[in-house]
């Protein structure tokens, strides 16, 4: 099945341009095979201005995004797969969409598709919360006392 990530990124990009905002993409600078100016990456992430006035020849295909841009006055070719995009947002107001990090291609080689469990890292599952958080029983007791069922919400991605 084709990933929906490139479609969503293109839609968000068009929406931002139509609203005359400045679209930026946050890219995992350590993703294998990408071409980005590494000297501008911070903590393994690079934020790129992809507005029509900042780039030349923007192409957003399902498997590869590319364009030319100037960095400190020097034109460079930039390219990366949509899987390396961590977020797309408008500079003016932060409106946009984050994406969960994708496993690197060498990490998924040899794995059976159904054996991979993808979860969002911002939300602990109930199992991980009870294993890694000694005070989780205290929190559950407080939640039950406050009339809640004591379960933490969780979200998982089904592929």
Structure in words:
The protein is α+β, with helices and mostly antiparallel strands and 159 residues long. The chain has two domains: 5-103, Roll (SH3 type barrels), CATH 2.30.30.220; 117-159, no CATH class. Helix content is 22%, strand content 25%. It has four helices and seven strands. It has helices at 5-18, 105-108, 126-132, 136-145; strands at 23-28, 45-49, 55-60, 65-71, 74-80, 85-90, 96-98. The protein has a four-stranded antiparallel β-sheet with strand order 2-1-6-7. Strand 6 (85-90) and strand 7 form a beta hairpin. The longest helix has 14 residues, at 5-18. It is globular. The chain starts with a helix and ends in a 14-residue tail after the last helix. Mean pLDDT is 80; it is low at 111-121 and 123-149.
Radius of gyration: 19 Å
**Structure annotation, total helices:** 4
What structural class is derived from the secondary structure elements?
A: alpha+beta
Spatial arrangement of strands, main beta sheet? 2-1-6-7
Portion of residues within helices: 10-25%
Number of domains: 2
Index terms:
7 strands; 3-stranded antiparallel β-sheet; alpha+beta; 159 residues; 4-stranded antiparallel β-sheet; SH3 type barrels; 2 domains
Q: Strands, helices and their partners?
A:
Blueprint (H helix, E strand, L loop, with lengths): L4 H14 L4 E6 L16 E5 L5 E6 L4 E7 L2 E7 L4 E6 L5 E3 L6 H4 L17 H7 L3 H10 L14
Antiparallel strand pairs: 1-2, 1-6, 3-4, 4-5, 6-7
Quick gist of this model?
The protein is an alpha+beta fold. Helix content is 22%, strand content 25%.
């Amino acid at each position: 099945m084709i990933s929906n990530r490139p479609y969503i990124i293109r839609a968000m990009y068009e929406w931002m341009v139509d609203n005359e905002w400045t679209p930026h993409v946050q890219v995992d600078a350590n993703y294998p095979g990408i071409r980005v100016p590494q000297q501008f990456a911070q903590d393994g992430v690079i934020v790129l201005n992809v507005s029509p006035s900042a780039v030349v020849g923007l192409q957003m295909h399902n498997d590869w995004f590319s364009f030319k841009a100037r960095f400190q006055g020097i034109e460079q070719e930039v390219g990366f797969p949509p899987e390396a995009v961590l977020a797309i947002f408008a500079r003016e107001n932060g409106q946009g969409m984050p994406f969960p990090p994708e496993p690197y291609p060498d990490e998924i080689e040899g794995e059976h598709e159904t054996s991979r469990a993808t979860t969002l890292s911002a939300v602990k599952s109930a199992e991980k919360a009870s294993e890694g958080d000694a005070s989780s029983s205290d929190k559950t007791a407080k939640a039950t006392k406050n009339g809640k069922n004591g379960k933490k919400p969780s979200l998982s991605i089904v592929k």
